[in-house]
Each structure stands twice: as structure tokens, then as C-alpha cells.
Design a protein that fits this description.
- By secondary structure, this protein is mainly α.
- The chain is built from two helices and no strands.
- The longest helix has 15 residues.
- The radius of gyration is 12 Å and the shape is elongated.
- The model has no long low-confidence stretch (mean pLDDT about 80).
């Protein structure tokens, strides 16, 4: 599964003031999961 497209879309939405004024608390956990998943896949 390629997270890059999803990540790009998420941050294009999350970077707007309309949705988030600051990063939600789950973002660091989501980034850590994506990094660990990517490493497990050998990337």
C-alpha cells in the first residue's frame, strides 16, 4: 500500500485553517505508524 498519495492528500487538507488550526493529536502517532510500516516493507 502506498501511503504517499494519501499522506499528500491528508496534509493538503490538514494544512488549511478551515479544518485544523493546529495538528491533531493523532498525527504524530499516524506518522510513526506509517514510518514503521514503510520500514517493515523494506522501503
Amino acid at each position: 500500500m502506498n501511503f504517499e498519495e494519501l499522506e499528500t492528500e491528508f496534509y493538503s487538507l490538514a494544512d488549511t485553517d478551515k479544518y485544523f488550526r493546529k495538528l491533531p493529536k493523532f498525527v504524530p502517532f499516524a506518522e510513526q505508524f506509517a514510518y514503521a510500516f514503510d520500514k517493515a516493507q523494506g522501503n
